[in-house]
Amino acid sequence: MQVPLHERIESLLAPVAAREGYELVAVETAGATKAPLVRVLLDRESGLDIDAIVAANGWISEVLDAEDPIPSGYTLEVSTPGIDRPLRKIEDFERFIGSTAVMKTRTIEGRTRFTGIISAVEDEVIVLDIDGQTFRVPFGSVVKANIKGDVDFNQKGADD
Asked: Could you give the domains of the chain?
């Protein structure tokens, strides 16, 4: 079975991202096979500004051009994961304990969707608090998950 394109690209970029001081959050591909969109989501402890994204675009382009995982042209998009950050690794769930997560899963207790606060991670099981009830979601059952972004539009800025 052939490895999906996004996984091949991720394996090429992960060691370089770590060396450059970035966390490779995800690689997504979309669009036509002959000219796909390659979206690379990065983060780092100090956050990302436009200069960091421009710098990352440079080394990502160098890696993709040198390794040539895409035989045709492609469009590269480099950005932050945003407020709805994907949760892809068990370490992501551990890092965001206390945050609200939205998860699509294989069927668990008759459900395939969960939205709740990550209260713990125990032996590859994500523990969610949903309206006072505890749900245990095996990490292997997670199909897709992300942080549920919360924006307070009523919060006053530093200049107010």
From this structure: 5-79 (3.30.300.70), 90-147 (2.30.30.180)
